[in-house]
Amino acid sequence: MNNDIISPENLVYAKPELMNDSPMHYCPGCSHGVVHKLIAQVIKEMGMEEKSIGVSPVGCAVFAYRYLDIDWQEAAHGRAPAVATGIKRCWPDRLVFTYQGDGDLACIGTAETLHALNRGENFTIIFINNAIYGMTGGQMAPTTLMGQKTATCPTGRDPKLHGWNINMTELAANLKGTCFVSRQSVESVGSINKAKKAIRKAFEASMQGKGSCLVEIVATCNSGWKMTPVEANEWMKENMFPEYQKGDLKDTTGM
Amino acid sequence: MADKEITLMKGNEAIANAAIRCGVDAYFGYPITPQSEIIETLSALEPWKTTGMVVLQAESELASINMVYGAAGAGKRALTSSASPGIALMQEGITYMAGAELPGVFINVQRGGPGLGTIQPSQSDYFQATRGGGNGDYEVIVLAPNSVQEMADFVDLAFELAFKYRNPAMILADGVIGQIMEKVVLPPYKPRRTEEEIAKESPWASMGRKKTREPNIITSLELNPEAMEKHNIHLQKKYQTIKDNEVRYETLHMEDAEYMIVAFGSAARISEKAIEIAREQGMKVGLFRPITLWPFPGNAIAELAKGKKGVLVAEINAGQMVQDVRLAINGAEKVAHFGRLGGIVPEPEEIVNAIKEKLS
Prior knowledge:
The complex is a heterodimer of chains A (about 260) and B (about 350). Chain A has about 260 residues and is α/β, with parallel strands linked by helices. Chain A contains nine helices and seven strands. Chain A has helices at about 30-45, 80-90, 100-110, 110-120, 160, 170-175, 190-205, 220-225, 230-245, and strands at about 50-55, 70-75, 95-100, 125-130, 180-185, 210-220, 245-250. A seven-stranded mixed β-sheet of chain A has the order 2-1-3-4-6-5-7, with helices on both faces. The model of chain A has no long low-confidence stretch (mean pLDDT about 95). In chain A, β5 (about 180-185), α7 (about 190-205) and β6 (about 210-220) form a beta-alpha-beta unit. In chain A, α1 crosses α7 and α2 (about 80-90) runs parallel beside α4 (about 110-120). Chain B is built from 13 helices and 15 strands. The mean pLDDT of chain B is about 95. A seven-stranded mixed β-sheet of chain B has the order 3-2-4-5-7-6-13, sandwiched between helices. Chain B has a five-stranded mixed β-sheet with strand order 10-12-11-14-15, sandwiched between helices. Chain B has a two-stranded antiparallel ribbon with strand order 1-8. The longest helix of chain B has 21 residues, at about 225-245. Chain B is globular. By secondary structure, chain B is α/β, with parallel strands linked by helices. Chains A and B meet through β1, β2, α2 and α4 of A and α3, α4 and β9 of B.
C-alpha cells in the first residue's frame, strides 16, 4: 500500500474532531451514531466547540456524553427541555441543544417539550424517533405505529387498547414559539446531507435568538424491531415515512 | 441607599428581595399558595433589567426544579420555591441534584397536608425535608427560618452552603413566616458573579468546555456497581463533613431552665411567648431552636436535655422532629410531643398546658 496517498491534501473524510474514540454502546445498525457525527461536525463548523452544552436523555442516548467532547448534562426522563431552559436562560451566548428519544420527548416529557418550544427558548431539540423504547428492551412508544408489534403490544398496537400514535413534530409546528421545525432521516447519503443542513439551520437559528427549533430524525431500532439493520431501513421507509413525513414543517427563520 | 435601612414586608417578599441582592442568577417557579408572592415580587421588581437575574414562570414545579438543575449544573445560583404539594412534585429533581452534586436551592413554604391539603400553615413536611422524598441515600441541607429577617438572611447562607459542599440546600419555612409582615434589614447588594468567577468557584460546571480541560459531565447515573458504591461512599463522607461543621441552633432562657421546649420556625416564635407565660406562672422553661434541621443539632439537644424535668417538642404536625429529638436524647430524659394538625396554628397557652399535662 502506497502510504503517500494518505496525505492531508487527499483527506476528504475524517471522524469529526469532537467525537472521541470511546467504543459506542449502540447496536450495529443504530441511527444514533450518524446523528452524533452530524452534531459533532456542525458544532465544529460553527466554531462553537468551547461554547456548546448538550443535554442527554434517558434512553439509549443517555450516554451521548461519552462520545462528543463538549460539556453535557444528563437530564431526568423527559426533562431535558426544562434543563436546557435553565442553562440557556443563564448562558444566552452558549449553543444549547437537547438530544431526546421518542419516549423521552413525546411521552413522559410532553409538557416540558411543548412548553419549552412554545416559550421560544433559543435552543434546538434533536428528536430521535424510532417508534420504540429501545434501552429498556423494546416496549411500545408514543410513536409506535398501529399494528406494530412491541414487548407491550405483542399482538400489534390496537387503538382501543393502546391509544393512537402521536405526531409531535406537527404539534410543534403549530406552536407560536417555534421558528424551525423539520423532520429528516439518516438512512442514505442524500438524507444524511439534508439532516445535517437541518441541524445546522436549527443551531444557527438558536444562536440568532429566533425562537425554538425541533429537528426530528425518523430512525431505526433494528434490535427493538427484531430485524436486521438492512430490513429495518426498509421497514422504516415503507411504514414510518408515510406516517412521519419528512421535510420542513415550519420555517420562519428567514435563513 | 443605606445598608441599615429597615423595611416592613412579608417573609415571601423578603425572600424575593434578598435573592436579587445576593446575586442569585435565576429564579424558576410556579404559583402556589402560600408562597406566590415570591414570584410575584420578583416579577414586579424586574431584576433582569438591573442585575440581569432571570425570572421565569415555569409550566409546573416539575419543570421548575429541572430548570434549577440545568442552571446549577452550569454553575449558576439558581432558586425555586413552592409549598408542600409542589415540593412533593420536585422530589425527582432534588434526588437528581443530590446525586449529581448540584448546588440548587429551593424553598418550601409549608401548608397543611397530606395531598392537596389546605392553604393554612403547617410544619408537616419535616420528614419530606429531612428524610428525602426522592430515592436513594442522600441528604439536603435544611435551614429553618423563624422570622422575616431570617428569610432574608438565609437565601445567601443557603447558596453559600450549597456551593461549599456541591449539595442541594433548602429553606423550610411555613405559611406563617411566609405571610407575616415584620421589620427587616435586607442584605446589601452583591453583584452576580462573572464568568471567570463562576469557572473558578465551580470548575466542575457544564458551562462550555474550554479546550484546556476535559469535558464536564453533570450526571447522577453510574451503571458500574463498584463505581456507584464509591460515589455513594463519597456522598456519605461529604454528609459527615457537613454534620461535623454546619450545625446551627439557638437557645433562649436555658441557663436556669427546668423544662426544655424544642421547636423550629413559627412554632419556635409561639414557644417564646409560651415561655413568657410559663415563667409568669413560676415554671422555668427554656427554648432550644434548631436552625439547621439537617444537619440536626442532636448532640447539643442531648447535652442541654440532661437533668431537665422534661423536653417538649412543639411542632405543627403529628410528630416528626420529635423522632430526631428522641433519638438524640436516647431515653435519658422524658420527651413529649405537642402539635396541632391540618393547618391549625397553636396558641401559646396550648404549649404551656402541654408542658403541664405531658411532662409532670
